[in-house]
Structures are given as structure tokens and as C-alpha cells.
Amino acid sequence: MLYHRQIWGTLASVGIAIGIASGVQASEMSLKHPTSTTQFRSIEQPLSLKVGVTAGGLTLIGLELWWFLFSKNKAKSR
């Protein structure tokens, strides 16, 4: 039982230390670029790329539906 407390205490300490370090790093990063814009820039993509990504996504969704809903054998009743 004592080992569990030591392990959890160590994990909590490391988590707190990492959280503090990442907070400091994030605040330093935000000070480096005070004139950065908060708006997104639009990057125009070719129509063929948009169609390909959409078709690929729909294909993957269809495969998932088939795999989880339609590919299994029905349970046999006794």
C-alpha cells in the first residue's frame, strides 16, 4: 500500500512540474509575437484534392459501417 502512495505521489509531482513548465513555455511563446493576427488565412486547394479527400472519407465511413454493422454473422437462435 505504501508503494502505491509513493508511485501516485511521484506521478502527481511530475505532472505538476510538467504543467508548470509548459505554462511558462506557453507564456514565453506568446510574448515573442505580440503582433500576430488571430484570424485564419484561407489556403485555396485544387478541386480534385477536395473531391479526393471527400471520396476517401466517405469510403472509410462506409467501410466502418460495413465492418461493424453488416459483416458479422447473425446470432443463431436455439
Topology:
Layout: H1 2-32, H2 47-70
Describe this structure in words.
- With 78 residues, the protein is mainly α.
- The protein has a domain at 2-31 and 48-70.
- 71% of the residues lie in helices and 0% in strands.
- The chain starts with a helix and ends in an 8-residue tail after the last helix.
- The mean pLDDT is 79.
Secondary-structure element string: HH
By helix and strand content, what is the structural category? mainly alpha
Largest sheet: none
Which percent band covers the strand fraction?
A: under 5%
Strand segment count: 0
How much is the average pLDDT?
79
Write down the overall geometry.
flat
- Estimated helix fraction: over 70%
Distance between the termini: 49 Å
Q: What does the radius of gyration come to?
A: 25 Å
